[in-house]
Automatic annotation (TrEMBL), chains A, B, C, D:
Record flagged with keyword Metal-binding: yes
Chief location: cytoplasm
Protein name (record): ATP-dependent 6-phosphofructokinase
Gene name of the encoded protein: pfkA
EC code: 2.7.1.11
Subunit-structure text: Homotetramer.
Molecular function (Gene Ontology), one example: identical protein binding
Cofactors, names only: Mg(2+)
NCBIfam families, per the entry: PFKA_ATP (TIGR02482), PRK03202.1 (NF002872)
Amino acid sequence: MEPKTIKKIGVLTSGGDSPGMNAAIRAAVRAGFYYNLEMFGIYRGYEGMIQDDIKRLDSKNIAHVLERGGTFLKSARSTEFKTPEGRKKAYENLKSHGIDALVVIGGDGSLTGAHLFFQEFGIPSIGLPGTIDNDLSGTDSTIGFDTACNTAIEAIDKIRDTATSHDRLFFVEVMGRDAGFIAINAGIGSAAAAILIPEKKMPIEHLVEKLKIRSKAKKSSNIVIVAEGGKSGGAGEIAEKVKKFLPSYDIKVTILGHLQRGGAPSSFDRLLASKLGVAAVEGLLQGKYDVMAGLINNKVVYTPIKKAIVDDKSVDEEDFRIAKILST
Amino acid sequence: MEPKTIKKIGVLTSGGDSPGMNAAIRAAVRAGFYYNLEMFGIYRGYEGMIQDDIKRLDSKNIAHVLERGGTFLKSARSTEFKTPEGRKKAYENLKSHGIDALVVIGGDGSLTGAHLFFQEFGIPSIGLPGTIDNDLSGTDSTIGFDTACNTAIEAIDKIRDTATSHDRLFFVEVMGRDAGFIAINAGIGSAAAAILIPEKKMPIEHLVEKLKIRSKAKKSSNIVIVAEGGKSGGAGEIAEKVKKFLPSYDIKVTILGHLQRGGAPSSFDRLLASKLGVAAVEGLLQGKYDVMAGLINNKVVYTPIKKAIVDDKSVDEEDFRIAKILST
Amino acid sequence: MEPKTIKKIGVLTSGGDSPGMNAAIRAAVRAGFYYNLEMFGIYRGYEGMIQDDIKRLDSKNIAHVLERGGTFLKSARSTEFKTPEGRKKAYENLKSHGIDALVVIGGDGSLTGAHLFFQEFGIPSIGLPGTIDNDLSGTDSTIGFDTACNTAIEAIDKIRDTATSHDRLFFVEVMGRDAGFIAINAGIGSAAAAILIPEKKMPIEHLVEKLKIRSKAKKSSNIVIVAEGGKSGGAGEIAEKVKKFLPSYDIKVTILGHLQRGGAPSSFDRLLASKLGVAAVEGLLQGKYDVMAGLINNKVVYTPIKKAIVDDKSVDEEDFRIAKILST
Amino acid sequence: MEPKTIKKIGVLTSGGDSPGMNAAIRAAVRAGFYYNLEMFGIYRGYEGMIQDDIKRLDSKNIAHVLERGGTFLKSARSTEFKTPEGRKKAYENLKSHGIDALVVIGGDGSLTGAHLFFQEFGIPSIGLPGTIDNDLSGTDSTIGFDTACNTAIEAIDKIRDTATSHDRLFFVEVMGRDAGFIAINAGIGSAAAAILIPEKKMPIEHLVEKLKIRSKAKKSSNIVIVAEGGKSGGAGEIAEKVKKFLPSYDIKVTILGHLQRGGAPSSFDRLLASKLGVAAVEGLLQGKYDVMAGLINNKVVYTPIKKAIVDDKSVDEEDFRIAKILST
């Protein structure tokens, strides 16, 4: 597309927050300054766009945010943005500020919003993959995923201390929505006895069999990682089922929960977010609209949002194979 | 009591594990070596004493354990030790190794076992307060409590990132059994909106009122800390009740769970455990039996076990007052 | 002293920053609000007082600061405050804002400033011990000391991984100015082979002898903790000397440096700072002037500043004895 | 090459240790068991091979090592292995144990040893890139690099607390030998004012100019990252030079040092090490000898060792560009 003249860019975060969002905002804003653009923060996502919660950002706004979890622009759900009237209002607010283009950081729902908005009003926009779930195509890793994996293994390391001290069986539930990425990484990274993920059904009998074999081999601790979105149920349900087969086992359940969403971003996520924040602004200046900027094989790639959000990304078969070899 | 001649000391950990137990074992063993004693590890608590899971320890056994969570001597429940026959068997195993005295590290149940054993067989023993719950008298702080508080606030710091990004209300449940020590410390330390602990009933209406006032003051995040043993129910139940009063709030619940028991011990717990490990061995050599060694005002104090386990320790009223002032 | 009417309190941090200063500021400000006072932030310590860098604080200013290292009020050295003219200017600025009293958070230099200011102008002031060095009397622990000890042992835990993998001898220098508190805690907490602190001279020959004995006992790693202010020199110098005696040893030096000053405060420091922040405001309202608020045996104690800064606090002999037993 | 029959594999770590080495050892050993091989640990690298410090490993040896920094097989320098006699002795020891093949984990020196050994004695061997420096070709990332970057940014985050509180200029020296990978990642990840790396000369005047501009823009903290192997000197030297130009600046230097080598490996390094450990054993079984297994674009790639150790890997120009945009 022929690049439009862009002088003012609005940045927003939407959907569940993820570590590195602040680093991405900062990078986009700083890149904007580098190209002599005016940069605006749209607070509380699409809701703030509708309610005109929009402020011009200067370098003070983005000082000391890179290293912080969450998003200083805040995030919120917006039911109103799902209506044509809501989006109209949002569009008018953008116009009143003279905002020419958008950088939208979030998961598939957030990018869908950007896509729709572009279709309706022609506002150039680039999405950035900001979610701990890693469930977006068009990028090897989403912003926040690496940090969430680190948070998960650090928590599981602590649980293992207790599991080992008591010869216990722990079921630990990790996040990831319908994708098993955090589960597979955390599972391999914490020497899990088994990993249950949405992409792959494991009959309860197989799991029980595996645990029995390990018990005979006198493995002193057993940690089973369960992804939250699995069809076999959450960690609590699966633990209940296993309990029936192995009544003598000392079984505990821990659901890691929201602490996986927060925390200072990892080095990897800071770098990823920084590169993508710059890529978002440079992409807009080059006329790349309605796309998501991602990093594939360490190169910036712009993928049409419509393609990025069709979630055909699932855990690599090779990773399963490795997990199986290592947990035998 | 006239000190008996002690040449061989057995060390065991029992009950729920806590960070710093390894540091305490190491200190006791190293103090034993200093006084030219033979030191034995009794594995898996009283159960291992009955099953003769007892090994002589040398300095290699205690290398690189100080900094690790859990207990390398392992811990286990023993129903058999609750019977006179079980204790008889345990006693005979000790005698067969020539073990003259015991150091028992654990919570009230573990110390009760040591007390009973001393009454029945006259085996000199000293208990050390090893529990994250801080619910033992005779010491300002139990081994593991400080680490558990740090683990809790680090997790809550992460949750706050998310709470703030979304203007959410989080109910976070921390451990502590029937005592609110972790809750009050984590609550003050994480700027909680409210702290619900077993020692103090807070009517749900008061809590709702407090949250409403904060909402008006536009506090951007609200974290309510709930101690696990509270009469008003766990974090899930309380969240349900509050939800009825505040249906528009975006409410989430996280139960920190067992990760609070693990992890590398804090500097405070390493020091406490090191001092008490030495105090246990020196106390035995001085004829102090059937007591718990604790640290009060940074001095070693030996309290009769019977007195230490009568749990009259509860959260300081002054700490409440501070919490109230700070959360207004 | 008969309490004066106090309506406006200024808070400042001065000297080297320490983790927990923000928590102390927040607690003081929040306590001020609780007692319906106006609270002012004096930025950049005494320098800002002279330059009238003073702003009224509201609850937004102290949101999300409790958990952050450093001091949002900033700190600076002021040579001008050491002159009568400088202090006069500072006093006039306070008067122009109507500030009736001061809370000064910092080390001995900072408290000396407060004392002098009180003597000259009669401005009621309370000092809080904010320093990682723990070198102030009138409190068991200074704000930031516990966090610095945790930072030190976490760093040493990492160094030990490498020391053990290579059978190396490491000299690790920790902070503490003229006091060995961080060194002794970090030394006991990291199973150090030896601890060199300013309070206690250890001839180089003794150290060498100790290392040789350990070498014979096949201890796989040797970490020697050196306090920065020791008379025998820093870690680098001592390592050089030891090298001459033990030329075959693989010796490395790490100076932990300023990272010990930063980081999120520990649970202990958050609690200590919160209690002392409240105590500062309540003390002022009760007419306690020219004193430092500290926590002794977990009770708030107000000590005349003149007495608190006379540094007769040194590492407990008992701690040495423990360190010696544990490193044999 | 036609695969030889391999039944017994020896694993060793050599050179500087890096976080994830234990995870790589574990993965190789576990993969060996999966393929019904006997696995041997060669302790203390090539030195242990010469001194016959070789033990058969069972599953107990590799329990609870994945999450630990360093290498439980230990590492050592061997001057003797550099002589034909030394290598002959090493070869004979391998033969006496019936060891058919080697997995060598380490940096370029270690891999060079494996290459030479293969040339001389035809012992099939596969190298794994174990170094924090990321200076090996044939893999996107070396084992330990990601963890070292995380350790660096966590330390710098703490230093920033202090830098910001005092408006200070900090020079922080990070590791990386002759490569600037840690420096560029840590620099982008910590919002550094400037990054000095061996691959790129920055005249001192440019640096001073940059710092002056930032000073005018009232940036409250300035952190300059210096890679250890830079031609302009270490952090201390550069700080001295800058001091001459900017005498009024409050300048501090911190050399992060060996703590960057230790610590629990990150999720990324655990996964990388696990995959490569399996790839080493599977590669040997498939007849891939004298190669290094690496991960490029998330696929296992076997590169001739001779090619992998020719260090033509240097920091990506694009990363510089990003760093420049973000630090303006």
